[in-house]
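Anyone able to model this chain together with flavin mononucleotide?
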Amino acid sequence: MKLLTPFELAAFSIPNRVVMAPMTRSRATPDGVVGDMTVTYYQQRASMGLLISEAINISAQAIGSPLTPGLYTAAHVAAWRTVTDAVHAAGGRIFAQLWHTGRVGHSLVRGGEVPVAPSAVRIEGQQHFTPSGMQEYEVPRALTTEEVAAVVEDYRQAAEKAHAAGFDGVELHAAFGYLPNQFLVAGANHRTDAYGGSIANRCRFVLDVMRALVEVWGPARVGIKLSPSIPFNGMVDSDPQALYTYLIQELNTLPLAYLHLMRPLFPLDAFPHWPTDILATFGGLFDKPIIANGGYTREAAEQEIDSGRAQLVSFGALALANPDLPARFARQAAFNEPDRATFYGGGSQGYIDYPAL
Ligand SMILES: Cc1cc2nc3c(=O)[nH]c(=O)nc-3n(C[C@H](O)[C@H](O)[C@H](O)COP(=O)(O)O)c2cc1C
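re: yes, here you go
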């Protein structure tokens, strides 16, 4: 099957088109340092063509959830270096997913600091997990124009640290309602400076960050994850088709490694005019490899690659529960069932004890 054939992913030859999707597991120390279990977790999964790390906070300001890792101190770099060394020793490759949660956070997990965002617009109708249980989202503080430039600089520094930590590249998390996504959509971005208003202005932050990442990493080492039709975390826009069409056309001007497109996971009944077939609507606009994501089975992934709409497919829950996913695909073996109760936080159970075949 094509899913298990090699692919030239820009700077690399990878042995198969099975990508491990980025997955937060909330098993770092309170200071955001990953430990030995995390080394084992990624090394166990190194047979997948490309691993994308869990989302990693680029700064203290970026933090939104407890026990998520960071990439802004020397201790963070040293800890991630043990992970990347182990993945490389096992023959794998790993990108770091760079994360700023913006308004998807709570002062209770941020030492009393209210989260920052493009605008002081609260997430409605959802709650956030904090050490004190589920809480209403807070009204974030709007970043000043100078602060926006400082956040871009934080991304640049995290990209440099990712390099020092031995990663093979970086992915900007611009999906699922986090800070870059908050700049993109009109529902969360009411700014009147150069970072708000028109589509070009709302895309400026993401493009500034992507340019900074490419300046650090050079060609074919930087990817981006987008979720154009996922309203989660209040990501509402009147015209996602125009917004993401512009963004992807601008991304084509940069020497990127890939575009990671996450399909909608739920019905879009409340947004009948939003595109539902993301690969059909946006995939063809991008002139470099596409990683398709979102609910793929072995068969659906094979079909997607066969059709030419994507060159690679990333797997979340399946990769979490099946460390030897390519071997299972090859043998048409049964899968371990993901245990949702151990997705976020805890110890080795549900983390590094899923058996290989
Ligand atoms: C436990 C868990 C944690 C996740 N954390 C992240 C994350 O840190 N960054 C991200 O971009 N997506 C995250 N996701 C979403 C996955 O990357 C992926 O988009 C989603 O699971 C859909 O793919 P799937 O149907 O193959 O699981 C997470 C998903 C799961 C299950």
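Residues 62 and 100 are 4 Å apart (CA to CA).
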